Amino acid sequence: MSIFLHDTLRRKKVAFEPLVPGEVTMYLCGPTVYNYAHIGNARPAVVFDLLARLLRRSYELTFARNITDVEDKINKAALEAGVPIATITDRFTKIYNDDMAALGVLPPDIEPHATEHIGQMIAMIEVLIEKGFAYEADGHVLFDVESNPRYGELSKRDVREMIAGARVEVAPYKKAAHDFVLWKPSTPELPGWDSPWGRGRPGWHIECSAMAEAHLGRTIDIHAGGQDLVFPHHENELAQSTCAHDGEPFARYWLHNGFLSMDNTKMSKSLGNVLLVHELVKDTPGEVIRLALLGAHYRQPLDWTDATLDNSRRKLDRLYGALRGVDIDAATRRSAEPPAAVLEALQDDLNTPKALAEMFELAKALNKAGDAAARRQSAAALQAAGDLVGLLKQDPENWFAGAAEGELDAAAIQKLVHQREAARAARDFAAADAIRDRLAAAGIAIEDGASGTRWRRVG
Ligand code: AMP
Ligand code: ZN
User: Is the overall model pTM greater than 0.90, yes or no?
Assistant: First the structure.
């Protein structure tokens, strides 16, 4: 079955077909590394990690996620701290990758750094000037938006309206207000590279056009990022790349994730409602955060509330609870495939709410199955689904043992559960009930089932 993806350019869901049969190239705009990633920044990383995992089942994927390590916000942070930009960018690149790894995000195949591609950016800018799509003015090089009749195609903006409505102050060196910077001059205290236009630095948009070409070629299959990148970032990347490449298509499919808000408010530093992944992962299992991020369809807005993580933890308890005590032999585990319904949901434009619902159905069926072989098969299928979506990586017992300090630890709980079973076997129901009450008081629920008594934390 083919994969269907919603393409921003065509504004509809279409069957995915890579340029080269069997091979896929994907580029995701990565972080600007000058501070910690917030939970909204983690959404594209997690969502497109899942897409990468899905694509790898059927194609040979080359996935690039860049690091923007030269940009004015970085320069500002470095100047304020009195350190070279690399001190800031090295530190936050590592933190970003560690934080994403905690959310089960696998490393991309290629992680190009902008500062390592300045030569390619300069070369692309030279081509754009030569072909009449860019001009030099006052140490700057600007993209001449009016030279490209297709500008506005991706974000569905009309350039003429943009010109008429432009309230932005026209910089004296610009022909038109919406012309955007490809290269700008650097003062001595700012990072800079020698170029035909003097010492300077690239604009943000040209970084991605040059890195995508350098690693994935002129036409890439999938270009992804958050919705806010459609305009101007991706519109400008598209203009640069197609104009430099004589109209050759730049990206065959454009994918954009919806925004994450907090209590229905935009996540923003000035409002003080920013949740940093780095803080969250200190006391929340990464899978709880990952499941929360995958709980909504990636193109829909996702509102994060106080209840989000609790709900997500309870859902994982259900999945791990079903796997608990099922002895899956290595061969069954290895040969297991995710259920067809899970795959179909994901192949339908990454319908994660549906895929997760199918996993809960399977967990329910597993709980009910009496036959040991059937339980093993279902559990292995559930784990295979977990592998695909990047969840259920822990041993179920360890999952339930992940107790906060002061709570009963797994060994103590298990001991009480055994004592209760012994009491029940001896028909001492008062003692058994007393133990159940004691566990309940400690936030532990127990369930007696076909395969014995299981326990779980209930918040
Ligand atoms: P930045 O480092 O600001 O360039 O952002 C990195 C990625 O996070 C980009 O793909 C953004 O589109 C995305 N992003 C930023 N804020 C949010 C948010 N609140 N919800 C979803 N995605 C976001
Ligand atoms: Zn980009």
Answer: no
